[in-house]
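User: Structure please.
Assistant: Input sequence and predicted structure:
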Amino acid sequence: MILHIFMTTIMPILVMAVAGFVLDRRFQMDLDTLSKINFYIVCPAFLFINTYQYRFSDSTLDLVNLNIVIFVLTLIGALVLERLLRMTPERAGILRNSILFNNCGNIGVPLIIFIYSNTPYLDVAGSTPWLQAAIAVQIIVFAFQNIVTNSFGFYFAGKGQLSSRDAVKLVFSMPIIYAVILGLGLNQANIDITHLFIWPALENFSNALVMIALFTLGVQLSRTPFQFFKRDVLVASFGRLVMGPGIALVCL
Protein backbone atom coordinates (compact mmCIF):
# COMPACT_ATOMS: atom_id res chain seq x y z
CA MET A 1 0.00 0.00 0.00
CA ILE A 2 2.80 2.45 0.89
CA LEU A 3 4.57 1.72 -2.40
CA HIS A 4 1.28 2.16 -4.28
CA ILE A 5 0.68 5.56 -2.66
CA PHE A 6 4.25 6.62 -3.42
CA MET A 7 4.04 5.59 -7.08
CA THR A 8 0.55 7.00 -7.79
CA THR A 9 0.69 10.16 -5.69
CA ILE A 10 4.20 11.25 -4.75
CA MET A 11 6.08 10.23 -7.90
CA PRO A 12 3.86 12.18 -10.37
CA ILE A 13 4.30 15.28 -8.20
CA LEU A 14 8.07 14.78 -8.06
CA VAL A 15 8.33 14.24 -11.82
CA MET A 16 6.58 17.52 -12.65
CA ALA A 17 8.49 19.49 -10.01
CA VAL A 18 11.82 17.98 -11.11
CA ALA A 19 10.98 18.90 -14.72
CA GLY A 20 10.69 22.55 -13.67
CA PHE A 21 13.88 22.28 -11.59
CA VAL A 22 15.95 20.76 -14.43
CA LEU A 23 14.64 23.02 -17.19
CA ASP A 24 15.29 26.11 -15.10
CA ARG A 25 18.88 25.01 -14.46
CA ARG A 26 19.27 24.45 -18.20
CA PHE A 27 17.34 27.35 -19.73
CA GLN A 28 16.66 29.89 -16.92
CA MET A 29 12.87 29.87 -17.15
CA ASP A 30 10.93 33.11 -16.70
CA LEU A 31 9.58 32.61 -13.18
CA ASP A 32 7.70 35.91 -13.22
CA THR A 33 5.70 34.86 -16.29
CA LEU A 34 4.94 31.41 -14.87
CA SER A 35 3.78 32.96 -11.59
CA LYS A 36 1.54 35.45 -13.38
CA ILE A 37 -0.07 32.71 -15.50
CA ASN A 38 -0.73 30.73 -12.33
CA PHE A 39 -1.95 33.70 -10.28
CA TYR A 40 -4.08 35.52 -12.87
CA ILE A 41 -5.38 32.71 -15.10
CA VAL A 42 -5.03 29.14 -13.85
CA CYS A 43 -5.85 29.49 -10.13
CA PRO A 44 -8.85 31.80 -10.66
CA ALA A 45 -10.25 29.45 -13.33
CA PHE A 46 -9.79 26.43 -11.06
CA LEU A 47 -11.45 28.14 -8.10
CA PHE A 48 -14.28 29.56 -10.21
CA ILE A 49 -15.21 26.23 -11.81
CA ASN A 50 -15.06 24.26 -8.59
CA THR A 51 -16.93 26.91 -6.58
CA TYR A 52 -19.57 27.09 -9.32
CA GLN A 53 -20.03 23.30 -9.26
CA TYR A 54 -19.81 22.92 -5.48
CA ARG A 55 -22.87 21.68 -3.61
CA PHE A 56 -22.96 23.57 -0.34
CA SER A 57 -23.99 21.88 2.90
CA ASP A 58 -24.11 22.61 6.62
CA SER A 59 -20.49 21.48 6.93
CA THR A 60 -19.22 24.31 4.69
CA LEU A 61 -19.39 26.92 7.46
CA ASP A 62 -17.79 24.43 9.85
CA LEU A 63 -14.80 24.17 7.48
CA VAL A 64 -14.41 27.95 7.39
CA ASN A 65 -14.58 28.18 11.18
CA LEU A 66 -12.10 25.32 11.53
CA ASN A 67 -9.60 27.13 9.29
CA ILE A 68 -9.90 30.27 11.42
CA VAL A 69 -9.44 28.37 14.70
CA ILE A 70 -6.39 26.47 13.40
CA PHE A 71 -4.87 29.72 12.10
CA VAL A 72 -5.31 31.52 15.43
CA LEU A 73 -3.96 28.62 17.51
CA THR A 74 -0.98 28.18 15.17
CA LEU A 75 -0.27 31.91 15.40
CA ILE A 76 -0.26 31.67 19.19
CA GLY A 77 2.13 28.71 18.98
CA ALA A 78 4.45 30.65 16.66
CA LEU A 79 4.45 33.64 19.02
CA VAL A 80 5.39 31.35 21.92
CA LEU A 81 8.33 29.92 19.94
CA GLU A 82 9.51 33.44 19.06
CA ARG A 83 9.49 34.47 22.71
CA LEU A 84 11.29 31.31 23.85
CA LEU A 85 14.03 31.81 21.25
CA ARG A 86 14.23 35.60 21.84
CA MET A 87 14.20 36.38 18.14
CA THR A 88 14.65 39.80 16.58
CA PRO A 89 11.50 41.26 14.96
CA GLU A 90 12.85 40.50 11.47
CA ARG A 91 13.61 36.85 12.21
CA ALA A 92 10.36 36.49 14.16
CA GLY A 93 8.36 37.66 11.15
CA ILE A 94 10.09 35.13 8.89
CA LEU A 95 9.52 32.30 11.38
CA ARG A 96 5.87 33.26 11.85
CA ASN A 97 5.19 33.25 8.12
CA SER A 98 6.97 29.94 7.55
CA ILE A 99 4.83 28.26 10.23
CA LEU A 100 1.48 29.91 9.47
CA PHE A 101 1.32 29.75 5.70
CA ASN A 102 1.57 26.65 3.53
CA ASN A 103 1.86 25.95 -0.17
CA CYS A 104 -1.66 24.58 -0.51
CA GLY A 105 -1.91 25.84 -4.10
CA ASN A 106 1.25 24.54 -5.74
CA ILE A 107 1.42 21.29 -3.78
CA GLY A 108 -1.89 20.90 -1.90
CA VAL A 109 -4.29 20.86 -4.85
CA PRO A 110 -2.20 18.44 -6.98
CA LEU A 111 -1.77 16.18 -3.94
CA ILE A 112 -5.54 16.06 -3.36
CA ILE A 113 -6.21 15.33 -7.04
CA PHE A 114 -3.68 12.50 -7.23
CA ILE A 115 -4.78 10.92 -3.93
CA TYR A 116 -8.50 10.85 -4.68
CA SER A 117 -8.05 9.85 -8.33
CA ASN A 118 -6.47 6.51 -7.39
CA THR A 119 -7.31 3.45 -5.33
CA PRO A 120 -8.61 3.01 -2.67
CA TYR A 121 -10.80 6.02 -3.56
CA LEU A 122 -12.15 4.60 -6.84
CA ASP A 123 -15.48 2.77 -7.01
CA VAL A 124 -16.11 -0.47 -8.91
CA ALA A 125 -16.78 1.47 -12.12
CA GLY A 126 -13.42 3.26 -11.86
CA SER A 127 -14.95 6.69 -11.21
CA THR A 128 -13.85 9.09 -8.47
CA PRO A 129 -16.81 9.63 -6.09
CA TRP A 130 -14.68 11.31 -3.39
CA LEU A 131 -12.67 13.64 -5.62
CA GLN A 132 -15.19 16.47 -5.88
CA ALA A 133 -15.80 16.52 -2.12
CA ALA A 134 -12.04 16.55 -1.45
CA ILE A 135 -11.49 19.38 -3.93
CA ALA A 136 -14.37 21.32 -2.35
CA VAL A 137 -12.63 21.17 1.04
CA GLN A 138 -9.33 22.18 -0.57
CA ILE A 139 -10.99 25.17 -2.25
CA ILE A 140 -11.95 26.58 1.14
CA VAL A 141 -8.45 25.98 2.51
CA PHE A 142 -6.86 27.41 -0.66
CA ALA A 143 -8.95 30.59 -0.65
CA PHE A 144 -8.45 31.13 3.10
CA GLN A 145 -4.68 30.63 2.86
CA ASN A 146 -4.40 33.08 -0.05
CA ILE A 147 -6.35 35.74 1.82
CA VAL A 148 -4.36 35.47 5.06
CA THR A 149 -1.03 35.11 3.22
CA ASN A 150 -1.60 38.29 1.22
CA SER A 151 -2.76 40.25 4.28
CA PHE A 152 -1.26 38.92 7.52
CA GLY A 153 1.73 37.49 5.65
CA PHE A 154 2.75 40.83 4.16
CA TYR A 155 1.99 42.56 7.46
CA PHE A 156 4.28 40.21 9.41
CA ALA A 157 7.01 40.34 6.75
CA GLY A 158 6.88 44.13 6.75
CA LYS A 159 7.14 44.28 10.57
CA GLY A 160 3.76 45.98 10.80
CA GLN A 161 4.50 48.64 8.16
CA LEU A 162 1.50 47.54 6.10
CA SER A 163 -1.60 49.41 7.28
CA SER A 164 -4.94 47.67 7.68
CA ARG A 165 -6.26 49.67 4.72
CA ASP A 166 -3.37 48.54 2.52
CA ALA A 167 -3.93 44.94 3.65
CA VAL A 168 -7.60 45.11 2.59
CA LYS A 169 -6.65 46.68 -0.76
CA LEU A 170 -4.09 43.93 -1.30
CA VAL A 171 -6.64 41.19 -0.61
CA PHE A 172 -9.16 42.70 -3.03
CA SER A 173 -6.53 43.01 -5.75
CA MET A 174 -6.34 39.20 -5.90
CA PRO A 175 -8.20 37.64 -8.87
CA ILE A 176 -9.12 34.53 -6.87
CA ILE A 177 -11.37 36.62 -4.60
CA TYR A 178 -13.53 37.65 -7.55
CA ALA A 179 -13.40 34.15 -9.04
CA VAL A 180 -14.79 32.66 -5.82
CA ILE A 181 -17.42 35.41 -5.41
CA LEU A 182 -18.59 35.07 -9.03
CA GLY A 183 -18.63 31.28 -8.87
CA LEU A 184 -20.54 31.38 -5.59
CA GLY A 185 -23.06 33.89 -6.95
CA LEU A 186 -23.79 31.88 -10.10
CA ASN A 187 -23.97 28.71 -8.02
CA GLN A 188 -26.56 30.10 -5.64
CA ALA A 189 -28.55 31.69 -8.47
CA ASN A 190 -28.65 28.35 -10.34
CA ILE A 191 -27.50 30.00 -13.57
CA ASP A 192 -26.24 27.49 -16.14
CA ILE A 193 -23.16 28.76 -17.98
CA THR A 194 -21.81 25.39 -19.13
CA HIS A 195 -23.27 25.93 -22.61
CA LEU A 196 -21.48 29.26 -23.11
CA PHE A 197 -18.34 29.58 -25.25
CA ILE A 198 -16.27 30.61 -22.22
CA TRP A 199 -16.82 27.32 -20.36
CA PRO A 200 -14.46 25.08 -22.41
CA ALA A 201 -11.74 27.73 -22.09
CA LEU A 202 -12.22 27.89 -18.32
CA GLU A 203 -12.10 24.09 -18.07
CA ASN A 204 -8.82 23.97 -19.98
CA PHE A 205 -7.32 26.73 -17.84
CA SER A 206 -8.45 24.86 -14.73
CA ASN A 207 -7.03 21.55 -15.93
CA ALA A 208 -3.62 23.20 -16.33
CA LEU A 209 -3.36 23.90 -12.60
CA VAL A 210 -1.50 20.73 -11.59
CA MET A 211 1.14 21.02 -14.31
CA ILE A 212 1.68 24.79 -14.05
CA ALA A 213 1.72 24.80 -10.24
CA LEU A 214 4.20 21.94 -9.89
CA PHE A 215 6.42 23.11 -12.75
CA THR A 216 6.56 26.58 -11.18
CA LEU A 217 7.36 25.01 -7.82
CA GLY A 218 10.30 23.19 -9.42
CA VAL A 219 11.61 26.44 -10.90
CA GLN A 220 11.32 28.12 -7.49
CA LEU A 221 13.18 25.25 -5.82
CA SER A 222 16.01 25.47 -8.35
CA ARG A 223 16.64 29.04 -7.17
CA THR A 224 16.30 28.34 -3.45
CA PRO A 225 19.47 27.97 -1.35
CA PHE A 226 19.01 25.02 1.00
CA GLN A 227 20.30 25.28 4.57
CA PHE A 228 18.71 22.36 6.40
CA PHE A 229 20.54 22.39 9.71
CA LYS A 230 20.32 26.02 10.82
CA ARG A 231 18.42 26.55 14.07
CA ASP A 232 15.72 28.75 12.55
CA VAL A 233 15.10 26.24 9.75
CA LEU A 234 14.74 23.37 12.22
CA VAL A 235 12.40 25.39 14.46
CA ALA A 236 10.27 26.45 11.48
CA SER A 237 10.14 22.84 10.27
CA PHE A 238 9.02 21.71 13.72
CA GLY A 239 6.31 24.37 13.79
CA ARG A 240 5.07 23.59 10.28
CA LEU A 241 5.35 19.79 10.30
CA VAL A 242 4.69 18.90 13.95
CA MET A 243 2.97 21.74 15.80
CA GLY A 244 0.63 22.72 12.92
CA PRO A 245 -0.70 19.22 12.19
CA GLY A 246 -0.93 18.55 15.94
CA ILE A 247 -3.16 21.59 16.40
CA ALA A 248 -5.31 20.54 13.43
CA LEU A 249 -5.67 17.03 14.84
CA VAL A 250 -6.77 18.38 18.23
CA CYS A 251 -9.30 20.70 16.56
CA LEU A 252 -10.79 17.81 14.60
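The chain has a mean pLDDT of 85.
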